[in-house]
Amino acid sequence: MGARSFALSAASVFTTPARPQDFLRLVNPLSSARQLRGVVTSVTPECAGSVTIAFRPGHGWQAHEAGQYARIGVEIDGVRQWRSYSLSAPAGQDPAITVTSVGRVSRHLVEHTKVGDIVFLAPPQGDFLLPTGPRPLLMLTAGSGITPVMSMIRTLLPRRADADVVLIHSSRTPEDTLFRSELAMLDADHDGFHVVHRHTGTDGRIDFTTPTDLEQLCPDWRSRKTYVCGPAELLDDATLMWRQHHVEDALSVERFETALLTDASGTGGRVVFEKSDKEADADGSSTTLLEIGEEAGVLMPHGCRMGICRSCLVPLRAGQVKDLRTGEIRSDEGDLIQTCISAPAGPVHLDV
């Protein structure tokens, strides 16, 4: 038994029926045996509608690797909401997230977070990671897709004098560009780091139907390990181009959103969350069961919110649901439903 475990065990003699951790939490809000937490240490504006929120995690946090993300929980109107955010701080340092005010939780974080606030945390995860050995790299990013790549750049450049990195970043205007000043300084200070800004408001988007645009920006792109992060259209276009030129194995893609059908909607209906004893009426839109549950105040399990990690699986007790990616209808009682990419196709009962 470790020293900390022994001390807690001994202290329990005096705190029963409560646990020692319950008393510790009165003194240290980061102390919790049930839920990892962090305290906000800084809130730094980046550009209009975007901030970087740094926090000091409590005991149990696993140091992140460059490019990973973590689930962040925040209380909004008495309901704990969770979202996944890429970590923008260098590997091994206290974590930070860079958030743009799009969506309910992100808007809350941008507009209301202040130093000293407590956030809820889940361990870092994800395999959008730097290669283990030296290799020329190309980073293709757009908008907030630069966030995990910024963690990679901040990690790699101080550690490797021989780093060879080309970053091509797209934003609508110079004023919309995250980390612009820091990127300019890094470009000036490191011979092996080259930044290319593409302002779509004046330059247009990169054309991936032919390699012409890319070859002008990075002539040796085929020989580089490439990381792509940004809107789904960028990811799809880059994946197709790399596949057509037989270099798909050199491509790593990080998705922030799920590719849905053109008619990504259910038929709606009443959703009953049996264990939580809550109900909600859903219209025939593309609102997912996960979102419906959260709006109803149900503590819904989830992770990536994109149908990848399968952390959101919930047993179907009755009714039908529609997979918003494929259009498949699921109706077998006991089926495990991915609530983050499923919508009700009529009345639904879920075991949550």
From TrEMBL:
Keyword annotations of the record: 2Fe-2S, FAD, Flavoprotein, Iron, Iron-sulfur, Metal-binding, Oxidoreductase
Signal peptide coordinates: none
InterPro entries the UniProt entry points to: 2Fe-2S_ferredoxin-like_sf (IPR036010), 2Fe-2S_ferredoxin-type (IPR001041), Beta-grasp_dom_sf (IPR012675), FAD-bd_FR_type (IPR017927), FNR_nucleotide-bd (IPR039261), MRET (IPR050415), OxRdtase_FAD/NAD-bd (IPR001433), Riboflavin_synthase-like_b-brl (IPR017938)
Domain 2Fe-2S ferredoxin-type residues, every copy: 269-352
Domain FAD-binding FR-type: 33-131
CDD domains, sorted: fer2 (cd00207), FNR_iron_sulfur_binding_2 (cd06216)
Statement: the UniProt record of this protein carries the keyword Ribosomal protein: no
PROSITE patterns in alphabetical order: 2FE2S_FER_2 (PS51085), FAD_FR (PS51384)
One MF term in the entry's GO annotations: metal ion binding
Coiled coil (UniProt feature): none
Protein name: Oxidoreductase
